[in-house]
Amino acid sequence: MIHEDAMLPFETTLGPGATWLRGYLSLDQQRAIAEKAREIIDGPVGGYVPTVRGGGRMHVRMTSLGRHWNPLTYKYMATRADYDDAPVQPVPEEWVALASAIAAEAGFTATPDIALLNWYGPDGRMGLHQDKDEGAESIAAGHPVVSISIGDTARFLFGGLTRRDPVEALLLESGDAFVFGGPARLRFHGVSRIIPGTAPAALGLSGRFNLTFRVY
Ligand code: SIN
Ligand code: MN
Known about the structure:
The chain is α+β, with helices and mostly antiparallel strands. It has three helices and 14 strands.
């Protein structure tokens, strides 16, 4: 089912532990995040297109903050050993505060220490996967993943705890937040496509930033 109806409430539950906060961020907040994200992804430890185990290339430009997610080992580390060995940069403090506030809005107490920053061009996508490379204690505690979307709308897929479970498609728009923790922490998810030209004009963006905050 596709949720395209603008009459949906601001806060929508997609099962226990999964909350979609539509239009959570003001345009000014979105602009500030976009500027910072652009600075980071174009900076000295900027975005790159990861090659994953098995040799496939991802369809996003990515950079990790706080800890580096190594796409070859699926482990977090202090440097980008799979790419340029650059030391990972910290998560900006204002982003930690924002992600904590969003987690609280969804009923979780969490202070994220990792952020993965992804840039999706017009052909950007991400296959169905689980976020399960954080520390075992964090996952067992159900500390949430807090996701923020900025720019073009994404068709986000949200499934269940196994790959074969039915998948819902949600249109995540610029300024939306999506939180999955507790019993939803390991639900499969992905992005099937980006809808070009849908970013708010005021952002001057053609493409999509997604930030996912996690507790290691
Ligand atoms: C991710 O699962 O890491 C990214 C999800 C998204 O881009 O919305
Ligand atoms: Mn993910």
